[in-house]
Fold this protein.
Amino acid sequence: MLALVLVALSVGLDNFGAATAIGVSGVGGAERVRIAAVFGLFEGAMPLLGLLVGHSISRSLGSRAPLIGGLLLICTGVYSILHELTGERAAAAQAEEPERQLGVRRLLVLGLALSIDNLVVGFALGTYHVSIVVALVLIVLVSVGLSLLGLEIGKRLGPRLGGRSELFGGAILVFIGIAIATRLL
């Protein structure tokens, strides 16, 4: 369960960073709810798909399932860290400077882009045999909560905070991946 909570926090930090950047532009209450709902929907849907595939494949992987799942989490975490350190995420965020109000299409694309790596995370969790319902509820609640928190912090503190959350999230995924691969969790 601890691994699941930490993974939910880690994948939700993408949304926190994006929501912080969006919050800087000053979005209203209805817009905040819409952003958090879309982020939560994608953050839940992608890991759910990965979990379903991971559960179905884990039996055929046998005792190697935790090792493979752990390695996938490590790779996802390292990718997140490298992506942040090379500045690709910052360049992409600048290219998609948020408008005062995000259009539905733009918000959906942003939600999908932020959650695509969660497909792999869900697969890794599926090989670890976590409850699909518990994982889904926890990931969605954490994602929505971090999105709303990011919007508020963005409104109050500006862009200084959002950028480093990806490094922290990547480090958590690497740690959880190592723990699962070595069967410490």
